[in-house]
Amino acid sequence: MKRKLIASAAIAAAVALTLAGCSGGAGAPTSSDGKTVLSVSVWSMAKTPEFGALINAFEAANPDITVQPVDIAAADYSTKITTVLAGGDSTDVIGMKAIQDFTKLSGEGALLDISDLVTADTSAKVTGLDSYKVDNKYYALPYRWDSWVLFYNKDIFDAAGQPYPTTLTWPQYVDLAKKVTSGDGDSKIWGTFQVTWPTIVQNIAAVQTGKDFLGGDYSFMKDQYNVSLDLQKSGAMMDYSTSTSTKAGYAPLFTTGKAAMVPIGSWMISGIQQAMKDGTGTIKNWGIAPMPQIPGATSVTTMGTPTGFAVNKNAKNVDAAKKFVAFTSSAAGAQALAAVGNSPAYQDAASTATLFSLPGMPTDAESKTALSPDKAVLDTPQAPTTAAIVQIGTDEHQLIMAGQTSLDDGLKEMGDRANSEVLNK
Amino acid sequence: MTASPPTIRHPKITAPQFTTPQLSKERALSARRRARRTALIGWSFILPNFAGFALFTLIPVVACFFIAFTQWDAYNPPVLVGVNNFTRLLGDSNFWISVRNTAYYAFGHIPLTLAIALGLALLLNRALRGIGIFRTALFFPYLTSLVAVAIVFNLLFAPDNGPINQILNSVGIANPPRWTASTEWAMPTVIITSVWRDMGYYMILFLAGLQTIPREYYEAAEVDGANAWQRFRNITLPSLRPTTYFVLILLTISSFKVFDLIQVMTEGGPGRATLVLSQLIYRDGIVQGDYGYASAMSLALFVIVLSFTIVQFKLSERGNK
Amino acid sequence: MSTTTQELAVKMIDVDNPLAATVKREPAYRPARRGRKSPLRVIFMYVFLTALVLVLLIPFGWMLSSSLKRNTEVFAVPIQWIPTSFQWNNYVDIWTTIPLLTYLKNSATLTLSITFLQLLTGSFAAYGFSKVKFKGRDVLFVSYIATIAIPWQAYMIPQYIMMQKLHLTNTLMALILLQAFSAFGVFLMRQFYLSIPDELVEAARIDGLNEYRIWARIMLPLSKPALASLALLTFVATWNDYMGPFIYLTSNDLWTVQIGLQSFVGQYANDAALLMTGSVISIIPIFIIFLLGQRYFIAGIATSGLKG
């Protein structure tokens, strides 16, 4: 009996081996019905509705092309892209999830020059185009451009008897956050919630003060750090250690009415849409205000985050690939993106109207203008030194926010490390 | 060199008087033939595994050693830079901090896991009804998804309202550690979590090892009037030596290249308090595209682990004799 | 002398005959008989073990409870141990939200193939490393083990490039070839074989058995506990592996359970509840394997031991 068991296990394994050998295989450039098959690398497709929307719209406009998405887990997207491109992979279009991916890949020469796609219309209407410009050549086009704004829950402000935020200064923002904070334990409503990433302190400070994030002197971040430290000390904001240890998410906190304000990129709109759709969100009235400004600012300056597509240098279908990339940052692509709650990089009245006509969207004029700030600067300046400096910034940010070092020491250490480890000063 | 027969080299010691030179030569020849035959048999056993291993693991590893002497972005052809990457290592504070942290982790994780796993194996190696359920339960931490482990332990150890600190508060400890939020306590927290996760795994290995100890040894010892401690000391421990050595090497290697758990729990933070070598290799190589430098770091890690392995191997082989 | 050893070997193998298997097995060693007779001690043991297990299983309990929660409740602060309303439909929905059945099938294909090859080649090589003495053996062995010391992140790109050149990427075969011949299995089996007395092998040699037969007829049957542990540990490692399949398998229809679970993790938001549901489901096969393998951890060679 036992021998039989072992024998059947061996047979099962042999069958499994054969199965393993047969399955799989590379995608052919054309499908059986003669259509061009275009492969496009995307991340977490099930959780990112924009890809489905873009692909459907593109296929409808180009009946001779079938798009084959290559779905990759968002968290490890760049690891996989780096590895497969090193192996000479020929996926046609590569999604640029983070600007750092673009910097690395364009620096290696893995992307195709697609400057010919930049028309007069594109340069006039597409925001964030220059994020992908290297030596006056474009190696990717943005399809989304998310500027950082201040989301707020109107009902919480009404209940607290406070006016809705407009263009605030950072000190005004702190005061307001303290005023709308209420409750304890389960009924706690935070005045504001800030992400644990250093971006919300370090990069916004650099963008708004005009100082150099890659320069090696970080004393200019002091005021911005005092904003966050003051907020967490006063209990108007969940403190850093709790946020990290509970992995608190800004979108759930906002959509369940636990946070009165959230300064974040406009991508949260699609998160709110999603939460309303699947019934996990309870928020009813919300609005968008411009990002708070440093005292004395005369216009609204904020950060912008681009998301784009590039063409692989080893692409099999270069023409179709270019067509796809151009489509995603065109008026038609913008419509498709806006319809699922995204802020398209191609900005025109039609897509803005579509975005704000989605159910549950704020209807006030202020919210609409907040999405078009006077100036939105790429959140992290790109250079060969960027990745290492961002890492140092993250290290010191954790220490400062968790109270493991004093603010002055932390900023000094950040500068010292940047100078000695990266800038060789 | 043609191997001269041992009788000629050490005539005083080994040459039996009745052996003619002719005969001893033949004997040496057949000994060599026998040795070659044995080697052939040995290799035939090893080859099926070794071929697959060499082709798919050894070659890439050797490639990694070569890359350590180049500058490579994982895309364009590598450029030879000699020992530049290694001289750069010497002055890299991130490298030294991560070496220190890795050693800290290893010296905490190895003895604790070894002792607890052995303790559990001894505890569960008995004829109790339903013992299988307990063994299964102890293996569960290793099966629980790493993401869930990270979430739960972070919640349990949350500095302000986590259950652990609440308990510590209630027993009169006014300022309990801030665990993963503090540079001092982050590593102990990670070690506690990893010991919890791994102990069931090594317990299984010890349980398998305990099965090899003949019961007669114990019966004889009992007849001789040995108490429980003496039996453990004189029978269990020596008989478990191959298993212990195996567990020790595995633990050493897995501790020195720890990655997943730290990545999901602290990502090396706060600051660089839990930054370990594998993470730095991943960051510099894959995230920042400095693959040559990252390979040099792996080579350094390899040398560290290899020296530990050789010491442990020598000690174990000596113990076997 | 040779006859006694043969008898010995036969006796050892004999334990595994079908008849013997039905006899209730006892563990290798029972602690002092005096202790076993005291019911108070047994009760104390149970209480102690139960308490220990409950404490150890807290995170698993949280995972189980979260798998029955609404998504928003998973990260509730303070920690919520019991769902406010049990979402049993999570266990139904997950099969349609992702093609879980396909993923389970792929995971099973990989895991079975790799475990089988690992056991076969590992125990074979281990015999060479432990019972056949030849020049350079120990050096080879140490170098074998030392390569385990290189973190995968360090050589994953060269390895991928090589597999791409062999046109094996995006096939399950790639992962089987990468993981079936690990040094781990060889190491585990070698350590076990070392504990089997050399005299036994010597005697078999004198009786005229060649090395391959000794491996098949004597070593394999004797090493069931080790084979069982190796099978279990390889099974778990392969089943839970995420990074390997993630890098090598691109087509969605080749994905394993662990990659599939990642689709609940988005760039900005997670389906934490379904992620936990999937994690619980993915444990079930390992749990079954473990229960099936249980008896091998109890009944080893030592039940017959070297008595004779």
Automatic annotation (TrEMBL), chain A:
Residues 1-28 form the signal peptide. Keywords: Signal, Transport. One of its GO terms (cellular component) is cell envelope. InterPro entries: Bact_solute-bd_prot1, SBP. SUPFAM superfamilies: Periplasmic binding protein-like II. It is found in: Cell envelope. Its main location: other. The keyword Transport applies. PANTHER family: ARABINOSE-BINDING PROTEIN-RELATED, SN-GLYCEROL-3-PHOSPHATE-BINDING PERIPLASMIC PROTEIN UGPB. Belongs to the bacterial solute-binding protein 1 family. This is Sugar ABC transporter substrate-binding protein.
UniProtKB/TrEMBL annotation, chain B:
It holds the Pfam family BPD_transp_1. Its main location: membrane. Signal peptide: none annotated. One of its GO terms (biological process) is transmembrane transport. Residues 99-312 form the ABC transmembrane type-1 domain. GO terms for cellular component: plasma membrane. The chain crosses the membrane at residues 40-69, 103-124, 136-157, 185-208, 291-311. Keywords: Cell membrane, Membrane, Transmembrane, Transmembrane helix, Transport. Coiled coil: none annotated. It comes from the Bacteria. It is found in: Cell membrane. Gene3D superfamilies: MetI-like (1.10.3720.10). It is a multi-pass membrane protein. InterPro entries: ABC_transporter_permease, MetI-like, MetI-like_sf. Belongs to the binding-protein-dependent transport system permease family. This is ABC transporter permease.
TrEMBL record, chain C:
Keywords: ATP-binding, Cell membrane, Membrane, Nucleotide-binding, Transmembrane, Transmembrane helix, Transport. InterPro entries: MetI-like (IPR000515), MetI-like_sf (IPR035906). GO terms for molecular function: ATP binding. CDD domains: TM_PBP2. Pfam families: BPD_transp_1 (PF00528). PROSITE patterns: ABC_TM1. GO terms for cellular component: plasma membrane. The keyword Cell membrane applies. It is found in: Cell membrane. The chain crosses the membrane at residues 43-64, 110-129, 141-161, 173-193, 214-239, 272-292. It is a multi-pass membrane protein. It comes from the Bacteria. Residues 104-293 form the ABC transmembrane type-1 domain. The keyword Transmembrane applies. One of its GO terms (biological process) is transmembrane transport. Belongs to the binding-protein-dependent transport system permease family. This is Sugar ABC transporter ATP-binding protein. It comes from Subtercola boreus.
